[in-house]
Specification:
The complex is a heterodimer of chains A (341) and B (312). Chain A is α+β, with helices and mostly antiparallel strands and 341 residues long. Chain A has two domains: 6-237, P-loop containing nucleotide triphosphate hydrolases (Rossmann fold, 3-Layer(aba) Sandwich); 243-338, Beta Barrel (OB fold (Dihydrolipoamide Acetyltransferase, E2P)), CATH 2.40.50.140. Chain A is 27% helix and 32% strand. Chain A has helices spanning 46-54, 96-100, 102-106, 111-124, 140-152, 170-187, 198-204, 222-227, 232-237, 246-253, and strands spanning 6-17, 20-31, 35-39, 61-66, 69-70, 81-84, 158-162, 190-195, 207-212, 215-220, 243-244, 259-260, 267-270, 279-291, 295-301, 307-313, 326-332, 337-338. In chain A, the strands form four sheets. Chain A has a six-stranded mixed sheet, sandwiched between helices. A five-stranded antiparallel sheet of chain A has the order 13-17-14-15-16. Chain A has a four-stranded antiparallel sheet with strand order 2-1-4-5, with helices on one face. In chain A, helix 4 packs across helix 5. In chain B, strands 1-2 form a two-stranded antiparallel ribbon. With 312 residues, chain B is mostly helical. Chain B is built from 14 helices and two strands; from the N terminus they run H-H-E-E-H-H-H-H-H-H-H-H-H-H-H-H. Chain B has two domains: 12-66; 77-305, MetI-like (MetI-like fold), CATH 1.10.3720. The chains are: A alpha+beta (341), B mainly alpha (312). The interface between A and B is medium-sized, with 23 and 19 residues.
């Protein structure tokens, strides 16, 4: 009896193109109703995984199951999943309403009902009354919503989103992040979200899988991923990289193992200051600083040759070193992350 | 100290560049004037001269054009013989266009969607190669291929289907002593000659259909045949329209192929040729020449009505 609470299951899945291992022996489960992000740099295999679920690609090894059903050899049109494409892929010769109703038309839903459902779905994505327009008459953000409505109107068991916000500007992207999350709560459908933007993955998802070179490096909640990255790659890709290696690491911890501290965990104090108990400290020099409004970002050169970024909130009058200042850095011991052996 | 380069007066060419840079409309006009003059005077002007000619008439006794406005030529155009010439040409152009479209689509689709790099270049060359050789040579070659002693009759006889070909050639309309004396031969040759003009615009239209459209359609539950009907074909329509304008109008105007291959019943082009050449009746030739222009105008307006140019 397959587990009903698992929406998508990968078992030792590989997708090789000749010698290129786009996806290499990957196993994971995505839970029903979950907002699941697949995060990674381009070419890490995350989009290929999405296409394996959608059915545009077939695995060269292992098996993919959707709600317990092995989908090997099942074409996309026989799968209960829908996709929001990166370029939206709205049909230019159809109106917005016709685009949204396309899946229903194919399923031979009566015209009156599909018009009604399309209009409801357009209202949900705040595009009520736009049904008569052509996609070319919409802005990027509006097209993105139409693409979402077109996929959701079919009430799929799993919705796949391929970098859907990639083409939008920052403000719109942040607004859509909030809305996507709300819509996901509202419809209760499993969302599988592919992105290379760690901020997006952290802010929206229940769980994130970090991809690197065709493999899953770590799969965890956003908080765990950020606070307890398992590998150097995850520490570097999620959040600001503050990786120290070799001699630089040894100057901080006394050992040559790679280590990292999140920039906002580090405190700055005048040179020679004492650190509290349970803290680690090191002296350094401000090499450069960037005023970012809410925060100031310092780039500190360490005596061992390494660099640490320090993020300090500009909350009130506090220690504000200038370029070239000697400073003391300290942080709580538990924030130090060490990797490998 | 000598004057540095910056203080030298700007050269003539740089002053000219600046002059035009600040007056982009003037530059555009200079570029557009010659082609517009060509189009306006040489091209459209001659067309109107032709149109005007068709309203005069040839004096049967003197053989001179009488410059008096009359609709006589157009009345003659609608007599039984001339109407049958127009009808025959129209039917042939329609059939040639449809067959070209059917043959061109898979080739264009393959070129647009699957071929890349060397394969694509090879296809381009293969499609264009026939255009590199002489038109008359190609038409005469087809006359040989389609002749009773030619390759096609021979091949049918070799596989024991000679009787089928002979039977087809006894059917009404397309009958003839051989393919080269039948409308079938005319049609085959027309399709062969005009096919590149259908493939290339169709390929260009299909190239503009991104793969994600096909994937999206499939993702939304459409089987490949439904995706073809609902997405690929409607988006290819502008290409089909462009290609069909070529095949249709070129067939309407051609006078060599129907003269060399077919049933020897005349087409519009031949009629024009005979009126202005043999008979010296330029006004009647002009009236006849109006037929394909009017037919094309009607054809384009129908194509527009069906939205063929909406995606342009």
């Amino acid at each position: 009896m397959p587990d009903k609470s698992i929406a998508v299951s990968f078992r030792a899945v590989s997708r090789h193109y000749g010698a290129v291992r786009a996806v290499d022996d990957v196993s994971f489960d995505i839970l029903d109703g979950e907002f699941f992000a697949m995060l990674g740099p381009s070419g890490s295999g995350k989009t290929t995984c999405l296409r394996l679920i959608a059915g545009f690609e077939q695995p060269t090894g292992g098996s993919v199951a959707i709600h317990g059903r092995d989908v090997a050899g099942v074409p996309p049109y026989d799968r209960d999943v829908n996709t929001v494409f990166q370029d939206y892929a709205l049909f230019p010769h159809m109106t917005v309403a016709e685009n949204v109703a396309y899946g229903l038309m194919i399923k031979k839903v009566p015209a009156a009902e599909r018009a009604k459902r399309a209009e409801e779905m357009l209202a949900m994505v705040k595009l009520g009354g736009f049904g008569g327009r052509k996609p070319s008459q919409l802005s990027g953000g509006q097209r993105q919503r139409v693409a979402l409505a077109r996929a959701l109107v079919n009430r799929p068991s799993v919705l796949l989103l391929d970098e859907p916000l990639g083409a939008l500007d920052l403000k719109l992207r942040e607004q859509m992040q909030v809305e996507l999350k709300l819509i996901q709560r509202q419809v209760g459908i499993t969302f599988i979200y592919v992105t290379h933007d760690q901020g997006e993955a952290l802010s929206m998802s229940d769980r994130v899988a970090v991809f690197n070179q065709g493999k899953v490096e770590q799969m965890a909640s956003p908080g765990e991923l950020y606070e307890q990255p398992k590998t150097e790659f995850v520490a570097g890709f999620v959040g600001v990289s503050n990786l120290l290696q070799g001699e630089a690491a040894a100057s901080v911890t006394g050992a040559a193992r790679a280590c990292s501290i999140r920039p906002e965990k580090i405190h700055l104090a005048p040179a020679g200051s004492a650190a509290p108990a349970n803290a680690m400290k090191i002296e350094g020099e401000v090499e450069s600083l960037l005023y970012l409004g809410a925060n100031t970002r310092f780039d500190i050169r360490l005596p061992g040759g390494g660099h640490l970024a320090v993020m300090q909130q500009n909350r009130d009058a506090h220690f504000a070193p200038e370029q070239g200042s000697k400073v003391t850095l300290w942080w709580d011991k538990r924030h130090l992350m060490t990797f490998g052996g | 100290m000598t004057a540095s380069a910056a203080t030298l007066p700007p050269s003539f060419s740089s002053r000219l560049s600046t002059y035009f840079y600040l007056r982009p409309k003037l530059l555009l006009m200079l570029f557009l004037l010659p082609p517009l003059l060509w189009l306006g005077i040489v091209y459209v002007g001659s067309l109107f001269a032709l149109l005007a000619q068709s309203f005069f008439q040839l004096d049967d006794f003197t053989g001179q054009v009488v410059y008096k406005l009359t609709l006589g030529n157009y009345v003659r155009l609608f007599n039984e013989v001339n109407l049958s010439i127009i009808g025959r040409t129209l039917a042939m152009a329609t059939i040639v266009t449809i067959i070209s479209g059917i043959i061109a689509f898979p080739i264009a689709y393959f070129m647009a969607r699957y071929a890349s790099g060397k394969t694509k270049a090879l296809f381009y060359v293969a499609v264009m190669l026939p255009l590199w050789s002489n038109y008359l040579v190609r038409v005469y070659s087809w006359r040989l291929i389609l002749a009773k002693e030619g390759a096609i009759h021979w091949a049918f006889n070799e596989v024991g289907l000679g009787w089928l070909l002979d039977w087809i050639l006894t059917l009404p309309v397309v009958q003839g002593s051989s393919l080269s004396n039948s409308y079938i031969g005319t049609c085959i040759t027309f399709v062969y000659i005009w096919l590149p003009y259908m493939i290339l615009p169709l390929q260009a239209a299909l190239e503009r259909v991104p793969r994600s459209f096909i994937e999206a359609s499939s993702d939304l539950g459409a089987k490949p045949s439904q995706t073809f009907r609902k997405v690929i074909f409607p988006l290819a329509v502008p290409g089909i329209a462009a290609g069909s304008i070529f095949t249709f109008s070129l067939t309407l105007g051609d006078y060599i192929i129907p003269q060399l291959i077919g049933s020897s019943r005349p087409f519009i082009g031949q009629a024009v040729y005979q009126f202005q050449g043999t008979a010296g009746d330029i006004p009647m030739a002009a009236a006849f020449a109006m037929a394909p222009i009017v037919i094309m105008a009607i054809y384009l307006s129908i194509a527009k009505r069906f939205g063929a140019f909406d995606a342009l």
